[in-house]
Amino acid sequence: MFSRTCGRLVLGLFVRKQSAGYRAPHKAAARSGSSSTAFCKQRAPLLQRSTCVEMKQHVPYQISTKSASRSTVDPDELKKFWSLASKWWDERGEFAALHAMNDLRVPFIRDNLLNVHRAHYHGKPLAGLKILDVGCGGGLLTEPLGRLGATVLGIDPVEDSIGTARLHALYDPELRESVSYQACTLEELTAEVEGVGEEQQFDAVVASEVVEHLADLETFAFCCSRVLKQGGSLFITTINKTNVSYLLGVVVAEQLLRIVPSGTHDWEKFISPVELERLLESNGLLVQSVQGMLYNPVSQNWSWTNSTAINYALHAVKLGDDPQPDQSEETTSGPENHNTAKHS
């Protein structure tokens, strides 16, 4: 108890000393000229099973996948999440902070999509939109997006996590026609989506607390671009690569307060907003907004902040021939406006 109290005091002191937030510049991005099919096949996965596990219930996206030789998946990261696969829906357990994060990331996704797609339906603001949730785990973010009316496909390479997600979704009849899951990697799915055509592409891709666990970020960015429709949105939440993020995100959160299991994060895999923007731009994705996020372990709540020194949320749009959203009207869901959405 004493160590947890001291840890919280340390956390509070460092939070007050965070640096000023990063704001993404709005500039044109160069698109990748490489062959998408060849690229994804070269970077596809080493999995214990070579195909996606098909659902035993209704599947809006019935897509089979193929194995290849390389992957975004880090085998060491897989081991971590295999052991936690049954604990996703324990709101007081290892994933408590992710449950609380929905208070920020769900409105962030919803509001920015409503800015891009003006047509919406009362009570189901995301109806008619297809969303891919990459690294969905047990479905903590997949389900609320489905309740907002979107048709959501959650994918994850950990089959036990997908099993947990499917089982939990069965308890809510509202999700049967809107949410589905597949155990596969992003690059496996990308190869099949490209083979089927644009009708299988997505209006949005979500990767929340995922990129800091991947083995190949360039493959991730490339494949996100390939599965998105022209003008589609990419949403990422992740951890910045700073000294303070190491102290608070690894030392305090994992070793002192044990907010997340020890060994969950590798600081070397963290990425700054500037580096992430550069990577996305090289794959035809223009960053629209970046907003800092802050977790308070005392209240167990997340809040928006001007600092991106620890956690941040990012919204990017795939460039193409279609008109892009008016940047002057872009919703950031930041401290000033994250509660101003017309729909809940």
UniProtKB/TrEMBL annotation:
Binding positions (Mg(2+)): E209, E212, H213
Transmembrane segments annotated in the record for this chain: none
Positions bound to S-adenosyl-L-methionine: R105, G135, D156, S208
Protein's UniProt name: Ubiquinone biosynthesis O-methyltransferase, mitochondrial
Chief place where the protein resides: mitochondrion
Any GO BP annotation: methylation
EC number of this enzyme: 2.1.1.64, 2.1.1.-, 2.1.1.114
Region (Disordered): 320-344
Gene: COQ3
Organism: Channa argus (Northern snakehead)
Catalysed reactions listed for this entry: a 3-demethylubiquinone + S-adenosyl-L-methionine = a ubiquinone + S-adenosyl-L-homocysteine; a 3-demethylubiquinol + S-adenosyl-L-methionine = a ubiquinol + S-adenosyl-L-homocysteine + H(+); a 3,4-dihydroxy-5-(all-trans-polyprenyl)benzoate + S-adenosyl-L-methionine = a 4-hydroxy-3-methoxy-5-(all-trans-polyprenyl)benzoate + S-adenosyl-L-homocysteine + H(+)
PANTHER family associated with the record: METHYLTRANSFERASE, UBIQUINONE BIOSYNTHESIS O-METHYLTRANSFERASE, MITOCHONDRIAL
